[in-house]
């Protein structure tokens, strides 16, 4: 397997966690999202992925895109250890958390959105920071309530073993901290993140541990 990745990418971080949890070997193919205006915007990369987004996972003749789709592929193709619970309602609950992070929180603070705010809409640095904090804190507030009120959460988002929800949560917490967003109002999120970051799979997938880390 080959993973097209950028060390700071939250979406690539999710996939790296899942690969590590499942004990799968892969080679990293770094794609720098800032150097030279962004290596993902080159013609060569566009030929591989018209969306011009990472991560991409090459496995055999398949080239897979979109982090949630890649996570589902890994779960279906390599079911041990499982990253989804057995019961259908529990699986939906885990998938809902993963989607909440990956589809509702993360996209609004993605690099290309922030670049559009700065470069096209000409928002001030303070306004950009307000935008970042608003969407992360709004999303985390809803997730904090879900984790606090639902008895299925344990040391992880669901029970005591990592799931796809945790693969998505930890990168978003790291992103919030990197962007100087205060998340102290979300103790359940902070507690789960602290527990997960003690695990080697999460530490090895972290941005600072990547071959292209700066």
Short description:
With 214 residues, the protein is of the alpha+beta class. It contains nine helices and four strands, in the order βαβαββααααααα. It has helices at residues 10-21, 43-48, 67-77, 88-105, 111-119, 125-149, 164-178, 187-196, 200-205; strands spanning 2-5, 27-30, 56-59, 62-65.
Structure report:
- There is one protein chain.
- The protein has 214 residues and is of the alpha+beta class.
- It has 9 helices and 4 strands.
- The chain has a 4-stranded mixed sheet, covered by helices on one side.
- It starts with a strand and ends in a 9-residue tail after the last helix.
- The model has no long low-confidence stretch (mean pLDDT 96).
Main sheet: strand order: 2-1-3-4
Question: Low-confidence segments, ≥5 residues, pLDDT <50?
Answer: none
H/E series, N to C?
EHEHEEHHHHHHH
Give the N-to-C terminal Cα separation: 24 Å
User: Overall 3D geometry?
Assistant: globular
Largest β sheet strand count, sense and barrel closure: 4 strands, mixed
Helix content: 40-55%
**In percent terms, what proportion of residues is strand?**
5-15%
């Amino acid at each position: 397997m080959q993973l097209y990745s950028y060390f700071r990418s939250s979406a690539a971080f999710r996939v790296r966690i899942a690969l590590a949890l499942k004990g799968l070997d892969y080679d990293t193919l770094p794609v720098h999202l800032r150097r030279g205006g962004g290596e993902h915007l080159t013609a060569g990369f566009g030929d591989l992925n018209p969306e011009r987004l990472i991560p991409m996972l090459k496995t055999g003749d398949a080239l897979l895109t979109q982090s949630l789709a890649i996570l589902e592929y890994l779960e279906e193709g390599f079911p041990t250890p499982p990253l989804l619970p057995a019961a259908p309602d529990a699986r939906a609950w885990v998938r809902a958390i993963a989607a909440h992070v990956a589809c509702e929180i993360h996209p609004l603070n993605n690099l290309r959105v922030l670049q559009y705010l700065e470069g096209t809409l000409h928002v001030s640095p303070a306004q950009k920071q307000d935008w970042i904090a608003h969407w992360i804190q709004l999303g985390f507030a809803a997730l904090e309530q879900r984790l606090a009120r639902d008895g299925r959460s344990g040391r992880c988002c669901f029970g005591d073993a990592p799931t796809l929800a945790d693969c998505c949560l930890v990168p978003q917490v790291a992103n919030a901290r990197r962007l100087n967003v205060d998340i102290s109002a979300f103790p359940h999120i902070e507690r789960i993140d602290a527990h997960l970051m003690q695990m080697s799979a999460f530490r090895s997938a972290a941005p600072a541990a990547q071959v292209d880390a700066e």
